[in-house]
Design brief:
Pfam families: GH97_C, GH97_N, Glyco_hydro_97. Keywords: Calcium, Glycosidase, Hydrolase, Signal. Monomer. InterPro entries: Aldolase_TIM, GH, GH-type_carb-bd, GH97_C, GH97_catalytic, GH97_N, Glyco_hydro_b, Glycosyl_hydrolase_97. The chain is built from 13 helices and 43 strands. With about 675 residues, it is α+β, with helices and mostly antiparallel strands. The protein has 3 domains: about 290 residues, Distorted Sandwich (Beta-galactosidase, Chain A, domain 5); about 190 residues, Aldolase class I (TIM Barrel, Alpha-Beta Barrel); about 160 residues, TIM Barrel (Alpha-Beta Barrel), CATH 3.20.20.70. The strands form 9 sheets. Strands 3, 4, 5, 6, 7, 12, 15, 18, 19 and 22 form a 10-stranded antiparallel beta sheet that branches. Strands 8, 9, 10, 11, 13, 14, 16, 17, 23 and 24 form a 10-stranded antiparallel beta sheet that branches. α4 runs parallel beside α5. The longest helix has 16 residues. The protein is globular, with a radius of gyration of 25 Å.
Length: about 675
């Protein structure tokens, strides 16, 4: 058997069968499906292979692209025979248990199901903002998936926005924290040996396409590789054959050998959805929640104990406090200080990040920290505790740890350093979310892959990282305003993301330095503030330094008052990588945020999305000197209504936030 690095490669016969079209192929037949509004047409051609293609208003967007599932039983989609077709149209509303972009989500689509003689079906759905397909099998015994063929071919010249995996030493390329900047290049330059994780964005000119997935359960996540043509092909981490513990401060399992298949699973099941999201306007990408709509609904119905909010985290700023009468660090006094800070300004949570216990033993509390005393003190201040955990430690001590967390009234746990998305690792996420749900505890994942609809199946999995965020300011210049204006259009299509904004030390291009003991952000103070509204995450983590925040009472109170779960979202204006203007509704009030890259901008926004009546507008915007001093901001007040217009002036790397409070429910 051939060996390809860590992967045992299968003989090429089936792949040759897939590529070489047989002279004795089944009769070719086309099937079509249109979106509810009629603009999108999906064509499925069944011949020697199954091909799908997409057109919008008659213009090709995806050219015929082959798909198949190569299994231990038979190649599904290669010389397969359709026995039945069925169509249906759905017009429902999903009520989101933990609202992210919107509480009530229209779920309107047309569906085509093709059943095949070979014990499988292909299900296609057409929405007005994209299409999706998935395989479903009906084998009685277990099934080994050796390979999945997922291709995405585009007409003409297309540009890809690709988070390219950087191979680490001593491990294969499928080990990644899913935190990379975007490489923007023609798809024809995307090489076979390059690997990108999803979501990825493809700009074909007339409209933009996002490739991602949903309902990722008991199956590996999808990466994409280049084809040196105008297309992408899916790739999947093979199943681990051998694992070893990689020692260090944060231990984790690494794969040292892999099987010659990607998944071993039950024979009767549905596989993950492959999503091709479509956007004519850039702002439509900010509204796309296909990954949520396509995911399996949660089994239980009572999620009232999942409570969004804003919490503090001391790790990025290193608890580098000043003006206190104790030595800051991982100790009781420091966390009581954080609790006092959160309570004073109206935040709801305080995180105890890495170091509160031995990383490898959750019951070995760090000397100097009285965890029970901290938890009891938090309760007196109506603050909830969140605890960081190392993934392999949590997995090993799971049930005992959950008992401890319940005893301490811990509301959320964060688990970290998985750095994989093979089938075995995906199963870990499900196991952790289910255990946490049994104990009514929320969970977040760092060192994680994108959500892929997981937050619908497990609403207590309230957010996750899978993004190059604030922590990168410690050691690099990667978390730039340009990057900040790419991730909401690309990464956020895959679900909520934990960026962890809130810096009070802000710098421009000339003054920024990555400094561990004096961490600063790139862009203005209001650029940081805008992230709390513009970025999807029901649990927003404030990573600023309380010592910087205490003196700025009005600003910090303003920040802490921002909601994190939204009843509705509209996008008045946006351009990928350049700027955005997003408006969110919470009850009767609206919150509007704007962000720009290093280019200063003036944008005029009409407020026609408001309801009738007057609103008090509380603004926080870049100050007159924000170009030189990125910490300069000013706050203002006005009365507005739906006929009003806002003029937003943003400095380089700037931002803007306005709270629009309904007049008959005004609050200071």
């Amino acid at each position: 058997m051939q060996r390809c690095g860590f992967v045992a490669c299968r003989p090429t016969g089936i792949l040759l069968l897939f590529i070489a079209l047989s002279a004795t192929a089944v009769a070719q037949k086309n099937y079509t499906l249109t979106s509810p509004a009629g603009a999108i047409t999906l064509t499925v051609r069944v011949a020697d292979s199954v091909y799908y293609s997409l057109a919008v208003k008659g213009t090709p967007v995806v050219t015929p692209s082959p798909i198949a599932l190569i299994t231990s039983h038979i190649p599904l989609g290669v010389n397969s025979h359709v026995t039945k077709q069925a169509t249906r149209q759905v017009q429902e509303t999903i009520v989101n248990a933990v609202p992210i972009k919107r509480k009530n989500i229209p779920d309107h689509y047309r569906e085509l199901t093709l059943s095949f003689r070979e014990n499988f079906a292909l299900v296609f759905r057409a929405y007005d903002d994209g299409v999706a397909y998935r395989f479903a099998t009906t084998f009685k015994d277990s099934l080994i998936v050796e390979k999945e063929i997922a291709t995405f071919r585009f007409p003409g010249d297309a540009t890809g926005y690709l988070p390219l995996v950087q191979k680490r030493e001593k491990v294969d390329i499928f080990h990644t924290s899913f935190e990379e900047p975007y490489t923007v290049q023609p798809l024809t330059q995307f090489k076979h040996d390059q690997l990108a994780f999803n979501p990825v964005l493809v700009d074909g000119g007339a409209r933009k396409v996002v490739i991602t997935e949903s309902d990722l359960l008991n199956y590996p996540g999808m990466f994409v590789r280049g084809t040196l043509q105008n297309g992408l092909r899916g790739d999947f981490a093979p199943y681990p054959a051998k694992e070893e513990i990689q020692d260090g401060e944060f231990r984790q399992w690494i794969v040292t050998a892999r099987k010659n298949y990607i998944a071993k699973t039950q024979g009767t099941r549905s596989f993950p959805w492959r999503i091709i999201g479509l956007a004519e306007k850039d702002g439509d990408l900010l509204l796309n929640d296909m990954s949520y709509r396509l995911a399996t609904p949660a089994k239980q119905t009572d999620w009232s104990w999942v409570t969004p909010g804003i919490g503090t985290d001391e790790w990025i700023c290193g608890a580098n406090l000043r003006g206190v009468d104790f030595k800051p660090g991982i100790n009781t006094a420091t966390y009581q200080h954080y609790i006092d800070f959160a309570s004073r300004f109206g935040m709801q949570y305080v995180m105890l990040d890495a170091g509160w216990s031995d990383n490898n033993d959750l019951f070995k509390i760090t000397p100097g920290l009285d965890l029970e005393a901290v938890a009891a003190y938090a309760k007196t201040k109506n603050i909830h505790i969140m605890l960081w955990t190392l993934a392999m430690t949590l997995d090993r001590q799971l049930e005992e740890a959950m008992v401890l967390f319940q005893k301490l009234d811990v509301k959320l746990i964060l688990t970290d350093f998985m750095d994989r998305d093979d089938q075995k690792t995906v199963a870990f996420y499900q196991r952790m979310a289910e255990a946490a749900a049994r104990h009514k505890i929320m969970i977040m994942f760092h060192g994680a892959f994108k959500g892929a609809g997981f937050e619908r199946t497990y609403p207590n999995a309230i957010s996750r990282e899978a993004v190059l965020g604030s922590e990168y300011n410690i050691w690099s210049e990667k978390a730039s305003p340009e990057h900040d204006l790419l991730i909401p259009f690309i990464r956020m299509v895959g679900g909520p993301m934990d960026y962890e904004p809130g810096f009070y030390k802000n710098a421009n291009q000339q003054t920024f330095r990555p400094l561990r003991d004096m961490v600063m952000s790139q862009g203005t103070r209001c650029h940081q503030l805008a992230m709390f509204v513009a970025y999807d995450s029901p649990m927003q983590i404030f990573s600023g330094n309380p010592s910087d925040a205490w003196p700025e009472i009005a600003y910090t109170t303003y920040l802490a008052s921002l909601p994190t779960a939204w009843d509705d979202t509209v996008v008045p204006d946006a351009k990928v990588g350049d700027y955005l203007v997003v408006a969110r509704r919470k009850d009767n009030d609206w919150y509007l945020a704007a962000m720009t890259d290093w280019t200063p901008r003036t944008i005029t926004v009409d407020l026609s999305f408001l309801n009738n009546g007057s609103y008090r507008a509380f603004t926080c915007e870049d100050g007159p000197n924000a170009t030189k001093n990125s910490e300069d901001y000013r706050m203002g007040y006005a009365l507005v209504d739906k006929n009003s217009k806002l003029t937003i002036n943003m400095a380089p790397g700037g931002g803007y936030v306005v709270k629009l409070i309904k007049l008959n429910d005004a609050r200071p």
